[in-house]
Amino acid sequence: MRVLELGTLIAGPFAGRLLADFGAEVVKVERPGTGDPLRQWGRAPDGGESLWHLVQQRGKRSVAADLHDPTDQALVRRLALESDLLIENFRPGRLEAWGLHPAALLADNPRLIIVRISGYGQTGPMRDQPGFGTIAEAAGGLRYLTGQPEGTPTRVGLSLGDSIASLHAIYGAFVALHERERSGLGQVVDVALTESLFSLLEGILPEYGYFGVVRERTGNIAHNSAPTNAYGCGDGTEVCIAANTTRLSQALFRAIGREDLVADEELATDRGRVRRAAELDEAIGAWTGARSSDEVLATLRDRRIPVSRINSIADIVADPQFQSRGMVVPVEDPRLARPLLVPGVTPRLSRTPGRVPPLAPPLGADTEAILARLDALVVEEDEHAAGSTTAASWRATRP
Length: 399
Prior knowledge:
This protein has helices at residues 11-21, 51-56, 70-81, 94-97, 102-108, 133-139, 160-183, 193-198, 204-211, 246-255, 259-263, 270-275, 277-289, 293-302, 313-318, 320-324, 367-376, 383-386, 391-397, and strands at 2-5, 25-30, 60-64, 85-88, 113-118, 188-192, 228-232, 238-242, 307-309, 328-331, 340-343. It is an alpha/beta fold. Strands 3-2-1-4-5-6 form a six-stranded parallel sheet, with helices on both faces. A hairpin with an 8-residue loop joins strand 10 (328-331) and strand 11.
């Protein structure tokens, strides 16, 4: 599968990375000289590009082309002609302004699927407003729910809005690919960051629509199940425990030596436990607070009660579970003094599991190879219909 990636930073490129992990040929178009701004985001080796960029663009091919330049726009149209997917995450209207109108691209390549990721979507009164992941989290309802009840809404600590939109983009792309098997036709997949986050809000909308209830922040407490929370241990660490079914809660009560809670009929129901969540948390916290996290984990895991440390990245790297599943992979690269730890491929497929590809290529590293391939293609088209140019004529205009 050939993918043409025109996006920058997070949402579009993350979607492209997930496809490259499973063997898609992802051709990333970057502005000459500077490339994707992500090349400069985050920590980087001395004189090098950001480590995040090296992972985000792994397995891709880099073509240096300026989407503001008419000649380069023609080159992109040629690339779209041989692509299955085009992924972009610019503000609505940018593709059209660059002479890359989806209707024209689909006229040239009717099987093309165009995935458009933006803050608010391609339509509606807010379509022209910029919408980064942080803004989408606020507008889509997620940020309202994060943090402690008495505090202000809190950022998760990651670009969650962009990443969730990327997953929706992949989902939409594969729905469109599946439909194309029947119709033979591509289409536009319109992904809004705000809507991707809004779709995660579980029962919040129907609860509001039916009861007029606005769900508020509950911190680490689940709003509709108990007991589940973060609990401090005697060694200064914290663990998360989720014993939020009747069977699990009673197993937990026995593990902490509280047979009185097991015998309490009200606590045999979910709603009863929710009403008394604070009481249960106090009992559980008293038990964990008198023990090390190792003892808490061993005791509860022996009883198959869901529990985990709140892992830092150092904990994850040392975790035998992540190691055994190949989720922390050292990758060597001549640009780096030592191997770089990168995330493994997910999800895991039994027959075609994907692979960890090489790190991001240098800016424009594949421009000549892609041009040579275009030169070799025999494409029956007229100049006006394809809106294209030959690779040789494109080369002639470059400095």
